[in-house]
Amino acid sequence: MKTLIVHAHPEPRSLNGSLTDLAVSTLTDAGHEVRVSDLYAMNWKAAVDAADYGPHASTPLRPVRDSGRALDAGALTPDVRAEQEKLLWADTVIFQFPLWWYAMPAILKGWVDRVFTYHFAYGVGEHTDTRYGERYGEGTLAGRRALLSVTVGGPEPHYTARGINGPIDDLLFPIQHGILFYPGLEVLPPFVLFGTDRITEREYPEVAKAWEARLRTLETTEPIAFRRQNFGDYAIPSLHLREGLERAGRSGFGLHVRD
Amino acid sequence: MKTLIVHAHPEPRSLNGSLTDLAVSTLTDAGHEVRVSDLYAMNWKAAVDAADYGPHASTPLRPVRDSGRALDAGALTPDVRAEQEKLLWADTVIFQFPLWWYAMPAILKGWVDRVFTYHFAYGVGEHTDTRYGERYGEGTLAGRRALLSVTVGGPEPHYTARGINGPIDDLLFPIQHGILFYPGLEVLPPFVLFGTDRITEREYPEVAKAWEARLRTLETTEPIAFRRQNFGDYAIPSLHLREGLERAGRSGFGLHVRD
Prior knowledge:
The structure is a homodimer. Chain A is α/β, with parallel strands linked by helices. Chain A has one domain (2-224): Flavodoxin domain (Rossmann fold, 3-Layer(aba) Sandwich), CATH 3.40.50.360. Helix content of chain A is 29%, strand content 12%. Chain A has 6 helices and 6 strands, in the order βαβααβαβαββα. Chain A has helices at 15-29, 63-72, 78-89, 106-115, 168-181, 204-216; strands at 2-7, 33-38, 92-98, 145-151, 186-187, 191-193. In chain A, strands 1, 2, 3, 4, 5 and 6 form a 6-stranded parallel β-sheet that branches. The first copy, chain A, is globular and about 55 Å long. The interface between A and B is large, with 66 and 65 residues. Chains A, B: Belongs to the NAD(P)H dehydrogenase (quinone) family. Chains A, B: Its EC number is 1.-.-.-, 1.6.99.-. Chains A, B: This is NAD(P)H-dependent oxidoreductase. Chains A, B: Pfam families: Flavodoxin_2 (PF02525). Chains A, B: It is an enzyme of class 1 (oxidoreductase).
């Protein structure tokens, strides 16, 4: 495997730091190649702005079109080009981050906003009344796999079907489906640690063991069965899921996973 | 009303820029006070790091605890203190932003990550086995109201109950419930414009009219009926919604809105 780890935590000696270090050593020891994008160490620029597109930034700025033009001309900034190249090099991408306010830390969202440009991660393929692009199971990153490794401060019961924060699968859906599956990545079930506000050094060996077990089985883990866009489940151009495909009672985000 | 508008778009001459300008003039003309936090113009720092907590940054850094200690000591950075003061000044907060990758732009997520510190937006009130803090309907910002004004590039059908991207209400739930309702804000139904990748100058007057109508009725608009945490709907400490409260068939995020 060739694994890219995108790491987003400000403190190297944090649980997130330990999990990334463990992923590097576990995968390397197993003979795999590993690269790490440590966003804080790289001082990653989070905000999309005109500087991202050089001479292709129009006046007024139009991020969608301008990012596509800059990509097509090979004129994106070196930091963004390097991340796109790492994604194309990798067959597996791990995202290591704490869930802050039910979403990614800003620095990681800024990695997505800037690296996932038009013509790279979206606006790929034909967009007509009968075909709405290559996305959700197709696209630039098709054939590659992704895995979220997320630390969550609160207790697991708060993130279950009836838990007050909402089910963790639904909270991660906009990332796993909307960001990762969209440009073609197959998404493995996430590795989520709950209650990390209260975790102690004494509990870490158990956590490490569970993470190593996931890392050692990455190649044989079945991805989440998100429905692909262009293979009959959705009507085009409405992109509505056709009636009758889901188990009775399914609704919301769960509709977009095959039973 | 005293309204704070938190604005997150890199181009002043964008649809988002026009909507914020219109909000300022409409509310001012109606005799209200308005302040704007234009995050790009302010060159807002998006990433949480040790510099946020000055002498209260511990080694290793612990963002939760350190942000609370810095808050308690009045030692947060001036940019964060200014935003917290604006939130306490306002009775209404409008967030104007484009939906990028089914979430806020990174610069706005960084406003949340940095301004919503421990002891300000979370970690407020008693946390015991019988009481789990003042949150979800209580907290520092209780009694204030919030409204998302969001531009969405894709077409509305893709964001409906069976639409491929998932229902817009569910995509906004982590923001509306997890970020805004959590510290006590009442959340008004969002103002969402779809298909903005293709909107033309000719269509803008219709859009402006709809936005003005929402702005003029802010004070009389009913908020989304999110369930409050500490008023009987949830068991403590599991924070599970008690059985039988919801309409048959409700599940997922929808459980947390009263019928």
